[in-house]
Amino acid sequence: MLLAIDTSAGTAVAVVDRAGAILAERADAATRRHVEVVGDLLRAALAEAGIGASEITGVVAGMGPGPFTGLRVGIAAARAFAFGVGCPVVPVVSHDAVALGRAEPVVVATDARRRELAVSHYGPPDAGGLPARLAGPELVPAGPIEVPIGATLLEVSEIPAGALGALGARLLELGRRLGPGEPLYLRAPDVTLSAGPKRVTA
Amino acid sequence: MTAPLVLGIETSCDETGVGIVRGSTLLANVIASSMDEHARYGGVVPEVAARAHLEALRPTLEAALEQAGVALGEVDAIAVTSGPGLAGALMVGLGAAKALAMALDRPLYAVNHLVGHVGVDLLDPEPLELPAIALLVSGGHTSLLRVRSLTDDVELLGETIDDAAGEAFDKVARLLGLPYPGGPQIDRAAVGGDPAAIRFPRGLTHPKDLERHRYDFSFSGLKTAVARHVEAARDRGEEVALADVAASFREAVADVLTAKAVRACHELEIPRLLLGGGVVANARVRELAAERAAAAGIELRIPPLALCTDNGAMIAALGAALVARGRPPSPFDVPADSTLPVGTVLC
Lengths: 202, 347
Ligand SMILES: [Zn+2]
Hints:
The complex is a heterodimer of chains A (202) and B (347). Chain A is built from 4 helices and 9 strands. Chain A has 202 residues and is of the alpha/beta class. Chain A has a 5-stranded mixed beta sheet, sandwiched between helices. Chain A has a 4-stranded mixed beta sheet with strand order 8-7-6-9. Zinc ion is lined by residues 113, 117, 138, 140-141, 277, 310 of chain B.
């Protein structure tokens, strides 16, 4: 049984079985309440799936892209839950969950704030039926997105945790290389190196 | 029945701390600091700190369990700092603590960071008798508290109205051309300096200020005074007397901190004072506190340095006290609160 957690947009949690069937899926669309809701969503999802925490054998973590502060909450929760039950973390690019199951090429776009979008381009699924990411995730200015002919634009405000979990299950089954070990912040921290102290006397 | 085994997680600033206690016995105190990453910016950068917490959390948890010689499954409760502190940093620890509590099916105690600094004294074989006055001084806070009960009755007497004392050390070090963190640098530079060479201002100590800000602190005027002094010397083409400036600045900080703390002990008739926070590492602050406490007949308590700076053991110790007193755990939807008032011990 796998647990999936993503806080790259709202907060999304799911329980899936090893075959990728969704047993429970819970979400809260608010984009600034991740740390408040993540505990209750975890509890509700496990209860709905009718399993105890100790039955979880892997935790699928949405690694972003997403706004820093919120994204980290889900990754911290995923890593801590996995540590608690003694199972591995399965890191997955959050956009891949949106592309999962689409037969045609897609472009996935999510809000990256600051008038930018995070965008990933996918070709048709690979031989294993998994999303084949050709480019991204990367930041582009907000506005019309260039979509290749024949591709579908998927501009989403939520990452489906059930699909994220199903993708994790499939990756494990195929023994594929897993997603990024580190969060996909896509932006450096906001810091400016000061030129030195300013004069206080005129 | 054995005392509860509590694991505490602290991520309110730039130290990722995990501590483990059994009742009032310290079993582990492991700290990973991102201080080096902030050095080039001259101060803690919240986003840099939050990113570092996420990476440090698991290794720090593992190291703490190893140091304590216990298995995760033996832990009876999880305690975590939910405020005050840097919001993004707090959220990493709180998010992790909730998931860990869920994974282990254990209660969660979301506690106050400042009260944790006081709670660390419970790990002493002979904790300070209550009520007591606590002076908590770091790069993030400068607070004076009256503690009647650690779990139920903590009152804020005063706090800084601008910079924290540790921040003042960092800023003054920078304008003297010294690296971050400023505290140890100023200490080093002050060796051989005359603490009475320059009479820098003591914030909020004039009678008119004392009416409204009896136990409050202010360090921005002091910082500006040091800047003016340094600029004036340079404008005259003179070399800045670094040792004298550093010693005089440090004296002003130590003076106002300890004077207000001792005043509170005296006026509130509580002859017990506890120090906490990273600035306690400053030798002159400790020395002057000891001198003045002795002169005023005040019992002074300074925890070991590793328990003065931000750490998880203090959070675990406070959590264990709350468990022992049968307090109900925190609701699972408890938020991180960067300005959590000190009166809220348990969220
Ligand atoms: Zn502190």
